[in-house]
Specification:
- With 158 residues, the protein is mostly helical.
- It has one domain (7-157).
- The protein has helices at residues 13-18, 30-45, 50-75, 85-94, 102-118, 123-129, 132-157.
- Helix 2 packs across helix 4, helix 3 (50-75) packs antiparallel against helix 7 (132-157) and helix 6 (123-129) packs antiparallel against helix 7 (132-157).
- The termini are far apart.
């Protein structure tokens, strides 16, 4: 089991972000808690046109590489479960083309968590083989793309 995260890390702005504003400190299912934090962020971003939305997500992804690497180094654990910035960005990727409505917010949440937990190929491969901040972010980016594809299928067929 991974050691508990020292609360003092929340005092450092980079760790505070990497730990999902503290949601990564949840004693159970920190990845799910981090994804919950992503919902209000998504709702704030939802009115953006596609290109500005994608630009923000890209900036959050690129910044997340450094954030996650920094906090992983401080914790001494690659991809510590408490590092949930990657879940936040992964959920935002999932919701890129989603229509408005609570049912799509919920469906995107469930689909992203499913892909993030089950980790079908190539997600699992990336999770195991790609290291550093980029590796932490990459598997959730791919999970977000897979979840977005399934969500689009649901939107199209429902």
């Amino acid at each position: 089991m991974t050691e508990k995260i020292p609360a003092r890390l929340l005092m450092h702005p980079v760790d505070f972000l990497a730990l999902g504003f503290g949601s990564g400190m949840a004693p159970v299912a920190p990845g799910t808690a981090g994804t919950v934090v992503a919902i209000p962020i998504y709702l704030l971003m939802q009115p953006l046109a596609l290109m500005p939305y994608l630009a923000v997500v890209l900036l959050l992804f690129l910044g997340g590489i450094a954030l996650c690497a920094h906090t992983a180094n401080r914790l001494g654990v690659h991809d510590h479960p408490g590092i949930v910035w990657d879940e936040i960005v992964g959920y935002l990727v999932t919701m890129t083309f989603a229509p408005a409505g609570w049912q799509w917010v919920a469906a995107g949440f469930v689909l992203f968590r499913l892909f993030d937990i089950v980790k079908p190929w190539p997600i699992r491969w990336c999770d195991r083989k790609v290291h550093g901040g980029f590796g932490i972010m990459l598997d959730d980016l791919i999970a977000g793309v897979f979840a977005a594809a399934v969500l689009q299928g649901l939107i199209h067929f429902l």
